[in-house]
Design a protein that fits this description.
This protein is an alpha/beta fold. It contains two helices and eight strands, in the order αββββαββββ. It binds copper (II) ion. Copper (II) ion is lined by residues 51, 83, 148, 150, 153, 158. Copper (II) ion binds at residues 51, 83, 148, 150, 153, 158.
């Protein structure tokens, strides 16, 4: 009799703790609506002190959402060497855009007057840091340039394109 009572208690406790556990899981799991749009594809890019993107051509589907993760693998202090990725509207003159931002360090070297040309941008990554952006690709074929706005980096070759077919 005692044995049965004991096993009853054990089963009851197991049930309680299992449902408590399930409840805890339920409350911490993010709701679908809290998440970034589903089917986000992550594209990983690195760049070091050589001021080059590891990937300069990204192909994307119309209407898809991509996340670009940019990691700096360099060692030069951030004040002198930092990298970002700024996606620009098709047809933007990239050289002129970067040149116009050179005086705007506080604005991540993006001239506020040219903000309308920016479709998405990361923050700056210093050594070992990773930054990211989310870009909802418009539903039309186009070529979107992206560039690092840190002065001097475009002339070192730090630019690429997102090709949407
Ligand atoms: Cu850079």
């Amino acid at each position: 009799m005692r044995y049965f009572r004991l096993s009853f208690i054990v089963i009851a406790m197991t049930l309680v703790s299992t449902s408590a556990f399930a409840q805890a899981l339920k409350s911490t799991a993010p709701k679908m609506s809290d998440r970034v749009p589903n089917a986000v594809r992550t594209v990983t890019i690195t760049s070091g002190d050589d001021m080059k993107y590891s990937l300069t051509r990204i192909t994307a589907k119309r209407g898809e959402t991509i996340r670009i993760k940019l990691t700096s693998t360099g060692t030069v202090p951030k004040i002198a060497m930092a990298h970002n990725a700024v996606i620009l509207k098709p047809g933007t003159n990239v050289a002129k855009f970067v040149e116009a931002g050179a005086m705007f360090r506080a604005e991540d070297f993006v001239n506020p007057a040219l903000k309308a040309s920016v479709l998405a941008q990361t923050k700056f990554a210093g050594p070992g840091e990773t930054v990211e952006l989310i870009f909802k690709v418009p539903a039309a074929a186009a070529i979107y340039p992206f560039v690092c706005t840190f002065p001097g980096h475009l002339s070192a070759g730090m630019t690429g394109t997102i090709v949407v077919k």
